[in-house]
Specification:
Distance between the termini of chain B: 32 Å
Oligomer: heterodimer
Largest interface: A-B, 40 and 42 residues
Number of strands of chain A: 3
Helix content of chain B: 40-55%
Number of domains of chain B: 5
Largest sheet of chain A: 2 strands, antiparallel
Distance between the termini of chain A: 16 Å
Structural class of chain B: alpha/beta
CATH architecture of chain A: Roll
CATH topology of chain A: Ubiquitin-like (UB roll)
Strand order of the largest sheet of chain A: 2-3
Number of domains of chain A: 1
């Protein structure tokens, strides 16, 4: 899987913000891991506390389908 | 016990079965066995398919089948002794007659259009063949050799094709003689008529040909003591192929000609003609045909000129297309995958052998209800449950089984045997004579029924009745997790020991089976006890008609099935039974954890259990069956609900099922043992919208998971605010799953709007 492939369009309007730090989330580097496999991705991240947000459509869409593929490996 | 995720980077496999073990299992499935009519035909005419084509009026394809198996199909149609017709199972029915295959063959030859076109371009072979003397065997052998592209010369004493055909097939009507003579003339074969067949002619010509074949009469002229090999038909001393002694009929002659062709092929390649001949001739079919619904019928009489199209179709339509589909008729799981057990077994076996790559059969082997119906309905007792279960255990042992499939159910078992567990003797008895084991689903779905039943047993049985709330371990067994099963066994065994090893009174047939070996005091069903004691006063005597769904846990247990029927009768119900009750009953979809692994198949299984109009009560004696059938719209009711006059909630959700188990434990502790378990208050308001509740059911997220996320949020304050929707999103990793809750907050607490989860971990880098 190529690095930094985007499965989720990060909203450019800054509508997401960190409740704790009070700052907008920014596009940040994150990595998904499952069953000893790692997938680098870009996700909305709080620049201060590092909270990584996994949106519902991503979790129930691409993440779920990759989980299912790996579960049959 | 906790479950940790496996790694896909560990490359381990364990052979599921040895080759012999696999073949033994596979051999029990007879679906692919030939039909009886096809099995007896030495020429291997698939008579079942032939009859099907005729019944559809596709006489051209039927004719093509005949032309494929013999070079002279009219001779076959008119002279064949038709063992297929004698083997037809319709003849076994009282007053029934087997299909008239020869008449159908004649009809197919007359009504079917001949194949057009010249077929594939064939190159003549380098080895040449000579055939001497006219008889049906040599005529067909010459044609077989010509068909195999050997340049063939046929030496006969007859003067023309018609005379040759008439001599070889004297039974043939004149019109057919002309047709077969024309067919002979159209073959790529050099026929030398009016030859003076003598040993001298043979001696002078035989050196010019590589393959020699002679008639029986001519063979005796060449060497009176010669006798061909019964399998290869080769007579070594003159080095010719010929027909063995004895009258073998038309079919025998045509079959011998085919065998001579096979020998010729071997000899042309310089091989021993006995090698690699494959399966030849008639075989014994092990096919099972259910004749119970077959209606006896007589043959359609063949008029002098043969069947017309309608008559041929009518005769062919009598064919019942013998095949064994017993397992598929009963099992929605096999129907879903559309595969017969032999194929499924081979694919599951191969699946276990995959070291790297996709295990394509994981979902299929986790979708079997392990209910054992197939082993009852299959004439050979094919046991898919044993195969799927051993495959699950194998994959768990090699770290190839996905935890995600069964994790929720496994933690449910652990919950039942920790937080929800209760093992107490009846007050006033240190050791009890009996122990009531209602089962996890009864406690989860109908806690009130359990409480009433326990109080009734305590009141009416002497010697003390203990109670044990928990899971019998069926879940871990079904999941192939032998380690957890062993742990559960040991927990239950020691609890039973402390209670004086009482006789277990189980309210669930599956629990009764699972607990069978655990208590020295033995196990019996509550139905047996109720029959002995008599029904309590609370029993509702409805007096209506009902159907009964037998539990898979009671398969093979005639005593339980009988006891339940007797109670139903005493309750005043009139039972209607279909052909799928008792040992043949399908599974509701709870068995084998199908509802977790494949909800679609589970739903199909449950629907296959529905019997009768939707408003007629369907009585069950397993609480899981009651729940699964109710979800498919049945008026299902557990027999204990009727006995104790309590109607449980229709279909409780996953969180409610857990709550019910805890509440039952608390209620019993408070009411019977005077112990008050204090519930830890949540400390804040937590409302869950209907939309969120539906998502939780669908995504298997519990109230306790949501509460844990909110507690974590209150401590850390970590959440994301979506300005558009105004919803906050908080998350918490619990075990192998990250739960996300979308909520709004006010001064008193929270309103949950959506929930979701993922198993992947996520970190910044």
């Amino acid at each position: 899987m190529p690095d930094d492939k985007n499965y989720y369009e990060i909203d450019p309007q800054g509508k997401l913000s960190c409740r704790k730090c009070g700052v907008p989330l920014v596009k940040g580097d994150a990595v998904f891991g499952y069953l000893d496999n790692a997938f680098p991705v870009q996700l909305p991240v709080c620049p201060k506390c590092g909270f990584v947000y996994v949106p519902e459509e991503l979790a129930m869409g691409k993440v779920l389908s990759v989980e299912k593929v790996l579960e049959d490996k | 016990m906790d479950f940790t995720e496996r790694s896909t980077r560990v490359y381990r496999t364990k052979q599921l079965y040895t080759k012999e073990e696999l073949e033994l299992r596979e051999s029990r499935c007879v679906h692919e066995q030939p039909a009886f009519c096809a099995a007896v035909c030495p020429l291997k005419l698939d008579a079942r398919e032939f009859a099907r084509l005729c019944s559809e009026g596709d006489f051209a394809s039927a004719r093509a089948m005949l032309e494929r198996i013999t070079p002279f199909p009219l001779i076959l149609a008119c002279g064949c002794e038709a063992p297929c017709a004698s083997a037809c199972r319709l003849g076994e029915l009282p007053g029934g007659e087997g299909l008239d295959f020869p008449a159908l063959e004649r009809a197919a030859m007359r009504l079917g259009a001949p194949r057009s076109g010249r077929g594939l371009l064939k190159f003549r072979k380098k080895k040449s063949a000579a055939v001497f003397g006219a008889e049906l065997f040599t005529l067909a052998a010459a044609a077989e050799l010509a068909r195999k592209s050997y340049p063939t010369t046929f030496f006969v004493a007859e003067s023309c094709a018609e005379e040759l055909i008439s001599r070889c097939a004297p039974f043939l009507p004149e019109a057919d003689v002309l047709a077969e003579a024309e067919r002979l003339c159209g073959m790529d074969m050099d026929v030398r008529y009016s030859c003076d067949l003598s040993p001298e002619l043979f001696a002078s010509l035989s050196g010019n040909y590589d393959l020699l074949c002679v008639s029986r009469d001519f063979l005796l002229e060449l060497d009176a003591s010669a006798e061909p090999d019964p399998v290869t038909l080769l007579c070594p001393s003159p080095g010719v192929l010929s027909r063995p002694s004895g009258e073998r009929g038309v079919l025998g002659a045509l079959y011998d000609a085919r065998r001579a062709g096979v020998s010729a092929d071997r000899m042309a390649q310089g091989m021993d003609p006995a090698t690699l001949r494959g399966e030849e001739g008639p075989v014994v079919s092990r096919l099972h045909t259910d004749l119970s619904s077959a209606v006896p019928s007589r043959r359609t009489g063949e008029p002098r000129g043969g069947y017309d199209s309608a008559a041929a179709r009518a005769e062919a339509s009598r064919c019942i297309q013998c095949e064994c589909v017993e397992c598929l008729r009963g099992c929605a799981y096999l129907r879903h995958y559309g595969k017969f057990p032999r194929i499924l077994t081979r694919e599951i076996y191969n699946n276990a052998g995959i070291i790297m790559g996709d295990h394509m059969m994981n979902k299929a082997l986790n979708s079997c209800a392990l209910c054992g119906q197939c082993s009852v309905v299959c004439p050979n007792g094919y046991d898919m449950a044993e195969i799927c279960l051993s495959a699950r255990e194998n994959m768990v042992a090699t770290g190839k089984m996905s935890l995600a499939v069964h994790e929720f159910a496994l933690y449910d078992q652990i919950f039942s045997n920790t937080e929800g567990f209760l093992a107490r003797p009846q007050p006033g008895h240190d050791r009890c004579r009996y122990l009531f084991f209602p089962g996890c689903q009864a406690a989860a779905i109908a806690p009130e029924v359990v409480a009433r039943a326990y109080s009734d047993l305590c009141a009416r049985l002497e010697g003390g009745v203990a109670i044990m709330l928990g899971c019998c371990g069926a879940i871990s067994r079904w999941a192939g997790r032998t380690e957890l099963s062993a742990e559960t066994d040991s927990q239950l065994r020691s609890a039973l020991d402390e209670l004086g090893n009482p006789e277990i009174i189980a309210a669930c047939p599956t629990c009764a089976v699972t607990l069978g070996g655990l208590s020295p005091g033995g196990v019996r069903g509550i139905w047996d006890v109720l029959l002995e004691l008599g029904l309590p006063a609370s029993a509702s005597h409805a007096g209506a008609s009902a159907s009964l769904h037998d539990a898979c846990g009671a398969r093979g247990d005639a005593r339980t099935q009988g006891a339940v029927r007797e109670i139903v009768r005493r309750l005043g119900f009139e039972l209607t039974e279909n052909g799928w009750s008792g040992d043949r009953a399908p599974c509701c979809g709870y068995g084998g954890l199908v509802s977790y692994a494949n909800p679609e198949v589970a739903s199909e299984l449950a629907r296959s259990c529905l019997d009768g109009p939707p408003d007629r009560p369907q009585i069950t004696y397993c609480m899981a069956c009651r729940d699964r059938l109710a979800r498919e719209g049945a008026q299902s009711v557990h027999i204990l609900e009727l006995v104790y006059g309590v109607q449980a909630a229709q279909t409780p959700g996953i969180s409610e099922k857990r709550r019910n188990r805890l509440l039952l434990k608390q209620t019993l502790l408070r009411d019977i043992w005077g112990e008050d378990l204090k519930n830890e208050p949540l400390g804040f308001r937590l409302d869950i919208t209907g939309e969120a509740r539906a998502l939780m059911e669908q995504r298997m997220i519990l109230d306790t998971d949501v509460a844990a996320v909110m507690r974590a949020y209150r401590e850390s304050g970590e959440a994301v605010l979506d300005a558009d929707s105004g919803l906050l999103s908080a998350r918490l990793r619990l075990g192998n799953v990250t739960f996300w809750v979308k909520f709004t907050e006010d001064s008193e607490g929270y309103t949950v709007h959506r929930v979701y989860s993922h198993r992947m971990t996520v970190e910044t880098r």
